[in-house]
Write a structure and sequence with these properties.
Blueprint lengths: L1 H14 L19 E4 L4 E4 L11 E4 L2 H6 L3 E2 L8
Parallel strand pairs: 2-4
Antiparallel strand pairs: 1-2, 1-3
Length: 82
């Protein structure tokens, strides 16, 4: 049992900081920040904002400039351009 716990702990330590494209593994991507736009309200958010839209209403935006050029307004809660 102890060997199994050590193996699990070692596996978790080795996986920290890895970049994965698959978000289902819950590994944080250390790439450039992106923003999430709401296709219904045209408000955009930081990717960690608590006011993100439902998945079916989301669009990924690569920068504040891209978002504003597509007539998206910054979220008043997460202030994505500051």
């Amino acid at each position: 049992m102890r060997t199994v716990l050590i193996a699990i702990a070692l596996s978790m330590l080795l996986s920290v900081g890895c970049n994965k494209d698959d978000d289902s593994n819950n590994v944080v991507n250390s790439g450039p920040e992106h923003y999430i736009g709401n296709t219904q309200s045209h408000v955009f958010h930081r990717s960690n904002c608590s006011y993100l839209p439902n998945a079916e209403n989301r669009i990924t935006l690569n920068s504040c400039d891209e978002a504003t050029s597509q007539n998206y307004t910054p979220c008043g809660h997460c202030n994505p351009c500051q």
